[in-house]
Amino acid sequence: MGLTEGETFDGRYRIEAPLGRGGMGEVWRAVDVHDGRAVALKLLLDKTARKPDLVKRFEREARIAESLRSPFVCELVRAGRSPAGELYLVLELLLGESLGDRLKREGYVAFADLSPIVDDVFEALIAAHRLGVVHRDLKPANVFLTADAAGEARAKILDFGISKLLPRGRSGDERSLTSFDATLGSFAYMAPEQVRGAARADERADLYAVGALTFRALAGKLPFESGSAAELVAAKMERDPPRLEEVTGERWPAAIEGFLQRSLARRREDRHGTAAEAQAAWRAITSSHRRVLAQVSRGVASLEATRTSATATSAPDDDG
Question: Is 137 a catalytic residue?
Fold first, then answer.
C-alpha cells in the first residue's frame, strides 16, 4: 500500500509530504492527530514486507532505536503495525539537513565547524556501543545537522537499519541476520574488515567510518576514490590511507593528520579501542586548535590596533 498526502494512516497519523525513500522503506512527514506533534513516519515497503529477513531487520531497528535513548540519536516515538499489517516507525521530525547535503552544497566543512559535529557523532556511538550496537553504515547522509531545544547546533545519527548487535546481547535471529547481511554499508566509508563481511565488524568499524567522513569533510575528497567498487575495495585492503596534505596540497596540523591515520588504519587493532578514547583524542585536537585560533585572533587584534594608532599619529592635522 502506498501512502498519499492528506490521508490518515493507522487512524492516527495525517500524511503531509514525502521525505525520502530507500531500499527498505519510505519516510513521510506526518502529524499525530492525537497531540498535533509533527513526526517522521517510516513505513516498510510492500516488496520488503514479503521478505522475512528484511522484516526481521526492520523489527530489529525498532528494538534498537527503542532502547537507544540519546540526544545524539534520532528519537523513536513509537513502533507499530497497522490493521492492514504494515510495519512502521514513528520518529522525531528533525529540521535541518544531513552532513551529506551540506557537503554536496559546500564541498567541504572547515575544522572549526566540523569539530562539534564529530564530537556529537562520538557521543552517539558511545551510547550505542554501550548497548552492544554497532551502526555499520555511518556516512554523511546518516549524520543530521539540526538544533536542540535550546537552539544549540546538534548532530544526530540516523538509520540503524543495518546495525549489528554484538555477541553479548544478540539472539539466534541476530546471528542469522548477520549471515544474511553479507557485506552491508557504504563502501566509501566501510572499514576493511567489514568489506570482507559484515559479521567481522565490531565497534572499531564505526570508528573507521567516523575517520572517513571526517577526512571527506575536511579535504573535500574521500581518502580512497575509484571508478569501481572493486578498485575501491582493493585500495582499502592493500594501501595505507593518504594524508590530508597529499590530497589537498596543504599543510595540516600533525595532530589532525595523526588522528586520521589512526582512525583509518587498515588493522582495527591499530585504531582507537573505543569511541570514548577516540572522542578524547578528538577533543584534545579541538582544544589545541581553539588555543591557536585565540592566539592568532589576539595577534591580529594587536596588529590592527598598532596599525590604527600609527595611522592616527601620522595623519595630517585637519586644521593644518
Answer: yes
